[in-house]
Amino acid sequence: MSNFPAQHQSRDPGLEHEMTPRPDYEPRFPGSGRLAGKTAIITGGDSGIGRATAVLFAREGADVAILYLDEDRDAEETKALVEREGRKALLIKGNVRSKAACKDAVEKTVATFGKLDILVNNAAHQEEVEDLREISEEQLAKTFETNIYGYFYMTQAALDHLKSGAAIVNVTSVNSYKGNDTLIDYSSTKGAITAFTRSMASNLVEKGIRVNGVAPGPIWTPFIPMAMDEEKVASFGSQVPMKRAGQPNEVASALLFLASEDGSYFTGQVMHPNGGTIVGA
Fold first, then answer.
1. Residues 65-88, buried b or exposed e (16+ Cβ, 10 A)?
2. Is there a domain that residue 185 lies in?
3. Active site residue 68
């Protein structure tokens, strides 16, 4: 099944405003104050799952800090969307590969909003490679430093400020569970994120801080036209039982559940918005 027009972006990271059609980030229901008075920081919050999560969190009452690399137009659009919901947004330009940048992002968030209640680790990098031998040292370092080092750095910085009742939500991937023959390094980092989530949940449970994960399947985000060739984009998502790609707002609701008191009895768990692919929990 063809879902999208064939398209490709040569820029890394990809840009949401250049995608056709644009991803669906809009919350689907009125807010009910589930995050009223909370402050969240979302890495990779300018677009894709990060944008949808930022807007949904704002609708539910949270102020949001958005850490992004260099996608200025997308970030400004997301800021405006958060403010449309009546909440405050803080844009922070920085690279999660840098421990100093992660510490700076958390400190700016706390300085602006006075506290930190929710950390969403979402920023990621992927490149398709057919043969393991073609993965360069540079690509391997970039993938691991972005996808797992960044989660460590952000969590280390956030722990100076998170108190009992706080939540951490890590975005992993269906590829953590089933593997992917052309995303070997990426899938490996996502497996590390799943283990990191479970380990940190055990580490922090007595402090009253919950740590959970979300493992999306094929979701229509700027990752896709950036990382895939045009033919693959045109059929993206058709391989899952639902025969379609998901939209970012279909994942954001899982992050909201885990970040809010709706998920108060969840820690060390991973939710699977993946279109019906059956994987081990």
1. bbbbbebeebbebbbebbeebebe
2. yes
3. no
E-state strands within 94-241: 118-121, 167-171, 210-214
Which residue among 68, 151, 153, 186 is the active-site one?
186
Confidence of residue 1 (pLDDT cuts 50, 70, 90): very low
List the structure tokens of 71. Answer: 């996608």
The domain in which residue 67 lies consists of 16-271
Residue 151 is predicted with a pLDDT of 98
SS (H, E, C) 199-235: HHHHHHHHHCCEEEEECCCCECCCHHHHHCCHHHHHC
- The rounded distance, in Å, linking the Cα atoms of 172 and 71 is 22
Instruction: Give which of 95, 79, 75, 154 is closest to 121, Cα–Cα.
Output: 154
Take residue 217 and report the two structure tokens written for it: 């399947």
Structural domain contains residue 115: yes
3 state DSSP class of 118: strand
Q: In this predicted structure, what is the pLDDT of residue 281?
A: 62
Q: What is the mean pLDDT of the chain?
A: 95
- Report the alpha-carbon distance of residue 41 to residue 275 in Å, rounded: 27
pTM: 0.96
Q: Within a domain: residue 107?
A: yes
| 65/16 Cα distance (integer angstroms) | 19
